[in-house]
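Tokens for chain A. Residues wanted.
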């Protein structure tokens, strides 16, 4: 097996997507598990997630996400290839101001059990050595809790809100919410540092290319919310009041009758549950938010690609 850096080119992005799709297709197979976003490096002397780690579908469908991380974190993004040069595994990880994030870890089903995932994660964890914080979004697969706890993470049960938006019972936002853009980078980095201990930094540039951005800013605090397709991609605010304002505005921006998703809500995000239920969405259990060296950030809705 050969490990090499993921390069910023279409061929490598397609190789990563191929591996992730195949791994995700085997998610329900006995003994497999999935971790969908970020995580901290395994503690010394303890095993990492192990070789059977397929990835949730959304990240597998983001070739531009792969190329972005290959540019910003070339030493944290690797492809595993067999003797014939065929891709059999991939890992994408980032390091942002002391927060290490595992954005993707996937191994082809036929290559699982051979140490491919273990070595990929070992190398990615080495890239994050010295980072004190980690965060991961894991789906509701039985093996996720086991592998994440073995890797030293705290498990926080997560919910999702999904359904068709009904604006009739949803109050209007209690303050101004504006369309955002690159000029709001400093505002967003400041909010990030307060909530998750490190700014998303260049990841905001990538999110701005593919998402609609809503921001609120005033004397009492600030916050932002990215919308991508039919989902809330990422939301962060310095107070629950502002988070409610942003999520209310986001659901309004989706519009009446639109099917939407608000994922990865921990028990501390009851403000989001209240807004979603008022808008006609339904709450359901949806896996785990896995953390190391940090409390669940709140008010905060993490992104799978950039948690």
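Reply:
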């Amino acid at each position: 097996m050969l490990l090499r850096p993921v390069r910023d080119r279409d061929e490598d992005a397609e190789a990563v997507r191929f591996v992730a799709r195949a791994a995700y297709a085997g998610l329900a197979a006995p003994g497999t598990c999935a971790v969908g976003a970020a995580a901290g490096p395994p503690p010394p002397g303890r095993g990492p997630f192990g070789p059977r780690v397929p990835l949730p579908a959304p990240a597998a469908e983001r070739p531009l996400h792969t190329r972005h991380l290959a540019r910003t974190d070339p030493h944290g993004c690797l492809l595993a290839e067999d003797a014939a040069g065929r891709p059999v595994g991939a890992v994408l990880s980032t390091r942002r101001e002391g927060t290490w994030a595992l954005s993707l870890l996937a191994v082809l089903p036929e290559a699982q059990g051979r140490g491919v995932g273990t070595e990929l994660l070992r190398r990615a964890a080495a890239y994050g050595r010295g980072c004190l914080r980690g965060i991961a979004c894991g789906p509701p697969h039985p093996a996720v809790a086991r592998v994440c706890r073995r890797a030293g993470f705290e498990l926080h049960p997560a919910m999702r809100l999904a359904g068709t938006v009904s604006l009739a019972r949803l109050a209007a936002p209690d303050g101004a919410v504006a369309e955002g853009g690159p000029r709001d980078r400093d505002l967003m980095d400041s909010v990030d540092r307060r909530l998750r201990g490190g700014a998303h930094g260049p990841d905001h540039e990538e999110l701005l290319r593919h998402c609609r951005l809503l921001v609120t800013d005033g004397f009492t605090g600030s916050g932002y919310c990215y919308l991508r397709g039919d989902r809330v991609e990422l939301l962060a605010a310095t107070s629950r009041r502002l988070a409610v304002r942003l999520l209310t505005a986001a659901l309004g921006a989706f519009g009446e009758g639109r099917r939407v998703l608000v994922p990865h809500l921990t028990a501390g995000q009851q403000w989001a549950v209240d807004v979603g239920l008022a808008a006609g969405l339904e709450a359901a259990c949806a896996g785990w938010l896995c953390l190391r060296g940090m409390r669940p950030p709140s008010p905060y809705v993490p992104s799978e690609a950039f948690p």
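Confidence is low (pLDDT under 50) at residues 28-58. The longest helix spans residues 10-25.
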